[in-house]
Amino acid sequence: MTQIRDVRRVHMIGVGGSSMSGLAGLLKDEGYEVSGSDRTRSHKTEALEAHGVKVLIGHRPENVRGAELVIYSAAIAPDNPERAEAARLGIPQMERCDLIGQLMKGSQCAIAVSGTHGKTTTTSMLAQVFLTAGRDPSVHIGGELDYLGGSTRRGRDEFILEACEYNRSFLHFYPTVAVILNIDEDHLDCYKDIDDIEATFLQFAHLAKSIVGWGDDVRVRRVIAASGLPHITYGLGEGNTLRPEGLCYDEHGRARFTALWEGKPIGEFALGVPGEANMLDALAAIAVAQSRDLPMDAVSEALHNFRGAHRRNELTSVTDGVKVYTDYGHNPAEIKSALDIAAMEPHKTLWAVWQPHTYSRTKTLFDQFLTTFDRADKVLVTDICAAREKDPGDIRSEMLIDPLRERGVDAVLTPTFDDAEAYLRAHWQAGDVVITHGCGDIDLLNEQIALHGDTVPEH
């Protein structure tokens, strides 16, 4: 395989993605000549251009000419025009996960955060924790963190990264510590079933020297036991290495607790973000920090000041007196968690706007999605975001509407973002809360609502 250190001119396909854009900026900072392409312009592509990266909109064969190496994400198929042209010209190609693996290889401590959900938040927490504690970590997050100034950072101490299980990408990494947050059903376009997913997490664990895992998750516990590796568990159960004592939530849903390590208190914590999911992610961060001998007062300070990564229950505007949030969650567990947090906001009507992501996920988790939106008062469903997939012709968003209504969910089909915005503006009232869900481009709906501002009354 081509080594990144042996080339200078790199082209990146899908450069506007959260991970790819961060890597592009990192390579640029290290002196590489970087170009990239994406389907659409975005704030990420504009930021890269301002940083000196040449960004081309649209995928065309000529974009790769002159490159010494083409880097692509797992979502970019071999028949992509740029990958096909690189193959024709004999230009080496590297998947994004292999680039990350090369960057982290040889690190004395590489902390890889895995799990079906919570990876970005936990990795972001760890980045802020380690920096607050005075460490100089390298960081790679699949989202953007204001505290970090983006999604990547090159440092001299620990390497902290988000390790995604999609397409078994995390098997290309070189972790010393495997953090396993949870193991649930997802990505069934590349896994046979949940047992296949669990078996792959075990393969990932075997890459590491030790494990930090959620001890209340039966599948995580099985992976830990089967690995035979030294381990730390966290959770609410009595048998965990780390658990919270005196756990309570304030009026905004933010957890407060004393952290017990093997039954002994190590610190007091008051989180800056609400919800049980964030509390569990914070426990994972505390467990890692304790294992690295970080001072708990610095860890507590960092978690108190942590405000979340972008697109994780992020407030994007207050329009017509309505708070509008966006969340990246795209499987049932993630969406339920986001709605639980959104429901903590005082509100008249809680609106969920869901962009289903990929045909395969919508089909394989169809029945689970029907039980996902019980906390919402109104649910708008947009067209499916195809992402890397071609339309199979047997699944459409409108097929979700009647089954949701039969369950008692007030669901409406709004195929486009313009349709969704028009419906919201025609029906919402000051004091409502809106949250958009999905890992496609649903955040563009939030952007256009903010851009259009308050509704101008018709005369």
Layout of SSEs?
Blueprint: E1 9-13, H1 18-29, E2 33-38, H2 43-50, E3 54-57, E4 69-72, H3 81-89, E5 93-95, H4 96-104, E6 110-114, H5 119-132, E7 138-145, E8 150-153, E9 159-162, E10 177-180, H6 194-205, E11 210-214, H7 218-227, E12 231-234, E13 242-249, E14 254-261, E15 264-274, H8 276-291, H9 296-305, E16 314-319, E17 322-327, H10 332-343, E18 350-354, H11 359-364, H12 366-370, E19 378-381, H13 398-406, E20 411-413, H14 417-427, E21 433-437, H15 443-452
- Fourth-level CATH superfamily of the largest domain: Mur-like, catalytic domain
Can you give the helix content as a percent range?
A: 25-40%
The CA-CA distance between the termini, in Å, is: 66 Å
Beta-strand percentage range: 15-25%
Short summary:
The protein has helices at 18-29, 43-50, 81-89, 96-104, 119-132, 194-205, 218-227, 276-291, 296-305, 332-343, 359-364, 366-370, 398-406, 417-427, 443-452, and strands at 9-13, 33-38, 54-57, 69-72, 93-95, 110-114, 138-145, 150-153, 159-162, 177-180, 210-214, 231-234, 242-249, 254-261, 264-274, 314-319, 322-327, 350-354, 378-381, 411-413, 433-437. The chain has 459 residues and is of the alpha/beta class. The chain folds into three domains: 4-99, NAD(P)-binding Rossmann-like Domain (Rossmann fold, 3-Layer(aba) Sandwich); 105-305, UDP-N-acetylmuramoyl-L-alanine:D-glutamate ligase (3-Layer(aba) Sandwich); 314-452, Protein-Tyrosine Phosphatase, Chain A (Alpha-Beta Complex).
